[in-house]
Write a structure and sequence with these properties.
Largest sheet: 4 strands, mixed
Order of helices and strands: EHHEEEEHHEEHHEEEHEEEEE
Mean pLDDT: 84
Number of helices: 7
Radius of gyration: 20 Å
Length: about 400
């Protein structure tokens, strides 16, 4: 069952759950202001649960029965770059630009695919956040004090799915009815229980929370990238470029983003309405695919809207910051009650310049770590020695 969301503030998943429950206690004044109402990421809250839960019966085909290849890891040489942006599309949280140095590392050339994630599920029996009931004890930490518990049936497993609204939307920032809490939506069922990934094994896996992505990394012997590593890799060695391909404005040839009128009509000039197979579009100069569009990607850093300003205030002029790992505390206006919010990078198939241009290499969003959505995935990294070559 799908439930429309008619309001935007603070945690979108919290709003979804409480709108389903018919509660009025969670209001815009309760949850605070937002910097920008995001189209292709959505601040939200759900339950953060235990890492591994085994099942008695396999819920997917064994990996020997499916197409599978391990993620190919691309060597990134490390170096210095100006992190952030001053271009006209940049938001407050991308400023000020500052010099950063990162050590060499390996990063997967694509986002983790459904086939690759299925191998992990096959071998561990892991159950993702979207496949578990929402934990009220965790959820109530992220909503205003005194908020009553919704009915148990509302807290059944599910995830947030993008559904184009009917008719025109005059003020998208004030109406996020296109995000719908959908019972039965998960990585195997991206649009809900009647959908499947049979013909999408080479698409990026979606409906994965930060906790899910970390569990995959632990199994594979990898980790999520820091925000600095992600941006350095996404830039592909280009100096101060706006996009992974340079400063040429985005077009359907560059990435899987939205064409047409957002959020009502996607004309799919790039060939896709939702996710696309990895490697559909040209890689950047480091050989990385889909660092613009397709799906958002988790990083390890905590999100602060003023992270860069704080970072610059703490250093001397012209200082190069080495291997930054993000702030120590959270300041996310979209999730003012949440104790944790993590940075996502890269934008998604929902990005459109009329509303957000988060396909740019400097664009960043915050999201609570227990949130899963139909346009959020991840890629992985490993540490590497400076002399290490590109390796599969």
């Amino acid at each position: 069952m799908r439930y429309p969301i008619q309001r935007m503030c603070g945690g979108l998943l919290a709003l979804a759950i409480f709108s389903v429950a018919g509660a009025s206690e969670l209001s815009t004044s309760d949850t605070g202001p937002s910097m920008d109402a995001p189209c292709c990421t959505a601040p939200s809250v759900a339950a953060r649960l235990a890492s591994y839960t085994t099942t008695d019966e396999p819920r997917v085909l064994k990996s020997t029965q499916r197409r599978f290849s391990a993620p190919k890891m691309i060597h990134i040489p490390g170096g210095e770059f100006r992190m952030g942006s001053v271009d006209e599309l940049a938001r407050f949280d991308e400023r000020p630009m500052h010099m950063v140095r990162v050590d060499p590392f390996l990063i997967s050339e694509t986002e983790i695919t459904n086939a690759q994630f299925a191998r992990f599920i096959d071998e561990t029996g892991y159950v993702t956040t979207a496949e578990r009931p929402v934990d009220w004890e965790e959820l109530k930490k992220q909503v205003p004090p005194g908020t009553p518990k919704p009915p148990d049936e509302v807290l059944a497993p599910g995830s947030l799915v993008f559904m184009p609204p009917e008719g025109d939307v005059n003020d998208p920032a004030a109406n996020l009815s296109w995000w719908q809490w959908t019972h039965g939506a998960d990585w195997r069922h991206p649009e809900g229980p009647d959908s499947n990934i049979t013909d999408r094994m080479d698409h990026p896996v979606v409906h994965v929370s930060f906790e899910d992505a970390k569990a995959y990394c632990e199994w594979f012997g990898a980790r999520l990238p820091t925000e600095a590593e992600w941006e350095f890799a996404a830039r592909g060695g280009l100096i101060n470029a706006i996009n992974p391909w340079g400063n040429e404005p985005i077009s359907p040839k560059h990435a899987n983003t939205w064409q047409g009128t957002f959020p009502r009509q996607n004309t799919a000039e790039d060939g896709f309405v939702r996710t696309s197979p990895v490697k559909t579009f040209a890689p950047n100069d480091y050989g990385l695919y889909d660092v613009a569009g397709n799906v958002w990607e988790w990083t390890t850093d905590l999100y602060r809207i003023d992270a860069y300003a704080q970072r610059v205030e703490a250093i001397q002029v012209d200082t190069v910051i080495e291997n930054p790992t993000g702030p120590e505390t959270v300041n996310d206006p979209r999730n003012p009650n949440a104790p944790d919010s993590r940075v996502q990078r890269g934008g998604s198939f929902l990005c459109h310049d009329s509303y957000c241009a988060s396909y740019r290499v400097s664009a960043r969003m915050g999201c609570t770590p227990d949130t899963s959505m139909s346009h959020v995935g991840f890629r992985i990294v490993r540490d590497a020695a400076p002399q290490q070559e590109n390796t599969p």
